[in-house]
Amino acid sequence: MSFSTIALLIAVIAIGTYFQTVTGFGLAMIVIGISSGMELTSVPFIATVVSLISLVNSAVALPRHLHHIDWRIANTTLLGIVPSSIIGVVLLNFLNSQATSILEFLLGAVIVYSGISFALRPKQRSAESSLRTFFMVGFISGLCGGLFGMPGPPIIFLMYRQPMEIPVIRNMLLLMFACTAFSRTFYEVITVGLARDTLVISAMAIPCVALVTLWAQRHPLPLAQPLCAVLLFSPWCSSVWG
User: Fold this and answer.
1) DSSP alpha helix (H) spans, the chain
2) Which positions ≥6 away from 187 have C-beta within 8 Å?
């Protein structure tokens, strides 16, 4: 990987980190969306990198905000997320070696769905969804997280429809993404290990992720959520239509 590619990738990671810290989502979708659209690297590689740096982002952002988390909902959702994220990694390894075009199509479909969903902005419900709904959506999100390192779209849409305060939603999403990233990374470590290039790029990105997370907590932008949708949606569209 050339120096310019690495520098561009680190810059994209910084942008994704900022939006995730402010809104509770965006890191995986922005980084994987842009890197795939610009063909900077492969899906399995960047998915693993995103999982590692997501842990850093959550480790910096969450500790002082755990009181915002509704543990009843979080635990139910995680019961669906953790096992399905491992299933997703198994599917990723199979599709990457046997059906790369299907993998790319699925990634594109998830990205387009995400961009449209967040651009339209979900309408808030008057009452909380059932625990069964949180479990089912958690399972689907974990599957997306295992496949692409991108668990966000289903659970983000569900969470932003709940009658909850934004800090609660944001920190619950950070917790769920951290658990998805940990499950995914742990499974990879004990089965195939982590490639040297993955560790190098992740190590280079970690200081940037930590600093941007701290800065974003002090300087949030009110337009973060719609901008996140635009940044996510545009690179993939340009790669398809360009």
Assistant:
1) 3-23, 27-37, 43-61, 71-98, 100-120, 131-148, 152-159, 166-191, 196-218, 224-241
2) 85, 86, 89
| Closest to 80 (Cα-Cα) out of 17, 21, 12, 130 | 130
Cα R_g (the chain), whole angstroms: 16
146: its two tokens: 């295992």
Domain boundaries, the chain: 3-241
* Cα(164)–Cα(153) distance, integer angstroms: 18
Looking at 121-165, list the stretches that DSSP marks H as alpha helix, in order from N- to C-terminal side.
131-148, 152-159
pLDDT reported for residue 121:
61
Cα-flanking dihedrals φ and ψ of residue 25, to 5°? Answer: -150, 170
Planar angle of CA 212, 158, 126, nearest 5 degrees? 115
Q: Is 67 exposed, middle or buried (0-12, 13-18, 19+ CB in 10 A)?
A: exposed
Query: Regarding predicted confidence, which is higher, 89 or 108?
Result: 89
SS3 165: coil
Per the document, the length of the chain is 242
Q: Is 128 left (phi over 0), alpha (psi -120 to 50) or beta?
A: beta
Compute φ and ψ for 178, nearest 5 degrees.
Answer: -65, -45
Looking at per-residue confidence, does 30 or 214 come out higher? Answer: 214
Is 99 a residue whose pLDDT tops 70? no
Token pair 């917790």 in the structure block, residue: 175
Q: Which residue has the tokens 């998805």?
A: 180
